[in-house]
Specification:
Blueprint (H helix, E strand, L loop, with lengths): L3 E7 L5 H15 L6 E7 L11 H9 L16 H4 L2 E4 L2 H11 L7 E3 L14 H4 L2 H22 L1
Parallel strand pairs: 1-2, 1-3, 3-4
Helix pairs in contact: 1-6
Length: about 160
């Protein structure tokens, strides 16, 4: 039985949030927790709706042995707030967009990913602009490992 549902959100759902989804899926599978934790991703905007993982991000994930499942970017919707237990943004702008989409966060479900790496307030830089996909991967991996450890303690 699924006990924790997690939604990752970034600007377009083609780099950071989908990378977090794929990384956490692998971590969940490796830890044999696939029946306890469910993960998905979405965009804060409509710019990339329907698009696959950005090729340089996909190459980075695959180079680290992270399987890339079929993906089509989608925008977060207000109903996601009730469907998911945690809504994880990659940067402050994502959190602001998420708050607008969901009309607030009364249940305190929204967090930055790097909080789970012990780095409160730190953002995962957008590799679309920085071109540093390896750095984004390392940050996301660290955040996902901390997030999974937190979820495991709570389930």
């Amino acid at each position: 039985m699924i006990q924790t549902r997690i939604l990752f959100v970034c600007h377009g759902n083609i780099c950071r949030s989908v990378a977090a989804e794929m990384i956490l899926r692998k971590e969940i599978e490796d830890a044999e927790l696939h029946n306890k934790v469910c993960v998905a991703s979405a965009a804060a905007t409509t710019e990339e709706i329907g698009n696959d993982i950005y090729p340089p991000m996909k190459r980075t994930l695959m180079a680290h042995g992270v399987p890339c499942l079929p993906h089509r970017a989608r925008q977060m919707k207000r109903a996601d707030y009730e469907q998911y237990d945690l809504l994880i943004g990659m940067d402050d702008e994502n959190i602001q967009d998420m708050l607008e989409i969901c009309h607030g966060d009364p249940k305190k479900k929204m967090h930055l990913l790097m909080e789970y790496a012990g780095l409160a307030g730190r953002e995962v830089s957008d590799p679309w602009y920085t071109r540093n996909f390896e750095r984004a991967y390392e940050d996301i991996l660290q955040g996902c490992q901390g997030l999974l450890a937190t979820v495991v303690r709570e389930v």
